[in-house]
Automatic annotation (TrEMBL):
Pfam families: Metallophos_2. It comes from Parvibium lacunae. Residues 2-207 form the Calcineurin-like phosphoesterase domain. Belongs to the metallophosphoesterase superfamily. YfcE family. This is Metallophosphoesterase. InterPro entries: Ap4A_hydrolase (IPR050126), Calcineurin-like_PHP_lpxH (IPR024654), Metallo-depent_PP-like (IPR029052), Pesterase_MJ0912 (IPR011152). One of its GO terms (cellular component) is cytoplasm. PANTHER family: BLL5683 PROTEIN, METALLOPHOSPHOESTERASE.
Length: 246
């Protein structure tokens, strides 16, 4: 069983809750799809945790917030996000920053593509916010299944043999068998900052033998995560949104 987690955003409480949930539900391997830092108040702890998973064979790819920690220019980043990046840089050791910098943009394994934003230009950070963009991403890879993050909302897209793409809103806790007659793109939602009106953390479990996908929502102590953001002097908006899931 493979657990897919993305957009942790330095939220220790959310990550701990999702990892515990995944372990209880039989996760044997893990894939982390970027944006490990930014917004939240525990970047150092999150990176240390992910380094330990990487040492045990977990899949990790880079997100745009991870890149922003070591990249000089962040012209397209929201001012609140840019402020957190500067704060985050001061919290990390040189070794932790080097870990982020060494992350790949993509990883392919067993006919599955793992990427943060999309397959057509992983370094451009374009969003998949509909069937048109999902189709573009699916056409850009030979893999039958793509897992990506970046959108902070769970969604499942599939392409038929004729190339027509349709969207499906997964129901948390409900398993979906992925037909091998279609090509699939799964966005499991965000661990550390959900934006679909539900404050519960979100991740997915995938059984590659049975080709069964299940998204999960996991309640966590978002009040503590928010208090840490405020205590760090980060924008209050980033704390408030955790309780609203927006």
């Amino acid at each position: 069983m493979l657990a897919i987690l993305t957009d942790i955003h330095a939220n220790r409480e959310a990550l701990e809750a999702c990892l515990a949930h995944a372990k209880r539900h039989g996760a044997e391997r893990y894939a982390f799809l970027g944006d490990f830092v930014g917004y939240g108040a525990d970047p150092s702890w999150v990176i240390d945790t992910l380094q330990a998973f990487a040492a045990q064979g977990a899949i990790l790819v880079m997100g745009n917030h991870d890149q922003a920690v070591f990249q000089a220019t962040r012209d397209n980043m929201h001012p609140n996000a840019a402020k957190v990046v500067e704060w985050t840089k001061a919290q990390l050791t040189p070794e932790q920053t080097a870990f982020l910098q060494a992350l790949p943009l993509t990883h392919e394994e067993d006919d599955i593509l793992f990427v943060h934003a999309n397959a057509w230009q992983p370094s451009g950070w374009g969003y998949i916010d509909g069937c048109m963009e999902a189709g573009r991403s699916l056409r850009a890879t030979r893999c039958a299944l793509t897992f990506c993050g970046h959108m902070h909302q769970p969604m499942l897209y599939h392409a038929a043999i004729n190339g027509q793409v349709a969207a499906f809103q997964p129901v948390a806790g409900t398993s979906i068998r992925l037909s091998n007659r279609r090509r699939w793109l799964c966005i499991p939602g965000a661990v550390g900052q959900p934006r679909d009106g539900n404050p519960a953390a979100c991740y997915a479990l995938y059984d590659p033998l049975e080709m069964v996908l299940t998204t999960h929502r996991v309640a966590y102590d978002h009040a503590t995560a928010a208090q840490k953001i405020l205590a760090a002097g980060l924008p209050a908006f980033l704390a408030d949104r955790l309780s609203r899931g927006d």
